[in-house]
Inverse folding.
């Protein structure tokens, strides 16, 4: 799933990611197959200016790399890609 947030930098996207995590934790949905015992989510955050993306798939790849970083850090969290994925940015 992707969430597109126009005019949002990585700090703003991190706030949204934390809200998603918090809201899902509040729901406390049982998941016996999860190491947490409940449904959890790992989120990868990447940002870029649409008119300058190099290429558009670069943003998806950066978000995917950030997602795997969140999983490597123990899952049920989020990770922000360290760079703005734009040409010269």
């Amino acid at each position: 799933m992707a969430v597109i947030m126009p005019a949002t930098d990585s700090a703003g996207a991190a706030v949204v990611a934390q809200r998603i995590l918090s809201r899902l934790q509040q729901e406390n949905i049982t998941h016996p197959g999860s190491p947490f015992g409940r449904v959890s989510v790992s989120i990868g955050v990447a940002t870029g200016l649409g008119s300058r993306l190099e290429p558009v798939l670069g943003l998806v790849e950066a978000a995917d790399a950030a997602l795997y970083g969140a999983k490597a850090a123990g899952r049920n969290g989020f990770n922000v890609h360290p760079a703005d994925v734009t040409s010269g940015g």
Q: What stands out?
A: The chain has one domain: 10-84.
